[in-house]
Structure formats: structure tokens, C-alpha cells
Batch of 2 targets.
Target 1
Amino acid sequence: MRCTEGAVKKFLLKPTEIRVLVPGLGFCFATDQVTVEGHLISYMYREEPEEGGDSGWRFFSGMESQNYVDNPSHTSIYDVNTIANYDEGIIPLLDAPQGAVFERTAAGEWIRVDSDGDKH
């Protein structure tokens, strides 16, 4: 895939390594920390879709700075199935409604976070 500056991204997974895990969920956004550097997803949220086919899901490693996220070359659009191949631990959460926010603990467990930051 070619990013906006013309540099080619070297993804951790090859297209031939992508299995069908969660078909038909639409597209999402994920950072290069996940797809290029191979970090597990530690923060994910679902917002109102921007257009048809958008699942509303946004995926992050949790290590991205605001400057990193603000640079559009560090984020790309993917099929949700592709991101599930990078981190199968997200699959049980993908049916969550719009507004859902999840953080992964150091122990690897997912907790739901309210919009005001309360965890439960």
C-alpha cells in the first residue's frame, strides 16, 4: 500500500496470510503501529460511521502520540477482517454498539471505558 507521501508501507502480514475471520463488517481505520509495526491493539472505539461501508471502528496500539495520530500517513483504511487477523483478541468486541470504547489491560483483558473515562 502506498501512503500519502509516496512511501510504500511494509505490512507485517502479507495478503496471502489474511484469513476470513469476520467477513462483511465493513471498513475501519487502524494505525501503522498495528499493521506495520505489529503491536497488539490496546485501544479501540466505535463511532458513528462516516459513510456507507464504514463500520465505525478505530484501532490503536495505545502507544501513538497525538502528533503521530494527526499525521494521516500513519493511519489507513482496512477491512475489519484484516485488522482481526492482526489481533484476534478484538473479535468478541466487534458487535459492540456505536459509542463503545475499550482498553486492553496489562494482563490482556479488555475493559469497557465510558465516554467520561470511567472503566468497568
Target 2
Amino acid sequence: MTAYTQCVILYTHSFRGDSMPQTATMSTTTINVRVDETVKRNVEVLFDSMGMNMSTAVNMFLKQCLMEEALPFQPKVIRKVSLKDALSEARLQAKKSGVSDMSLEEINDVIEEVRYEERRHK
């Protein structure tokens, strides 16, 4: 079973007993969206590997928005934090918690966490 077939099955079952929209009777319209060229190429490759095209993926996204009456993911603000600011904040939190200073292990944990977040958002 292809990933596209699995998505269609999940989509079909997600209507919780409501009648499935009939594609044959629905009229369609065009949406023009500007997107970074590299992003477009990369998602086309991704969607192709799942057995679907851009139009199918966008339609799935829009229908999921309707079913959830919200975005199907949690938007987040990505903040760049300097290592110095992260350590200052960690020290402040430690003092508020009644700890006079941070151990070397705690400092290293904060540094590793900041580095991980920076790598994740590149």
C-alpha cells in the first residue's frame, strides 16, 4: 500500500461518520501561492515519494484545517538566544529556586540545550 493510499484511507476515516465529500460533484478553483523555490522543489520530491502531487497535499492540508477548525499544527516563534543570555537566565532561575550557583554539569546542560535548539532551527 502506498503512502498516498494510506493518507486517503486516514482521510476517509477522519470524517467521523459525516458523509465524505464527493470530488466528482465539487467544482474547483485555483489558488496562487508564492513560495521559496528551494522549498517547492524539496516538498515536490517529498510528496512524490509519498505518491502524491502538490495539489493533493495542499488539498489534504486545507481539508484537515476544516476538520479541526484550526491549523493542523502548533505555530511557534523561533527565538535566537545567545549563549550568554541563556546562561544568565539559567543563573537567575537557579537563584530564584534557592540555589546559590549552578554546577558545571548544569551549565553544560544549558549550553548543550542552546546548541541543540540552534542546530534544529537551521
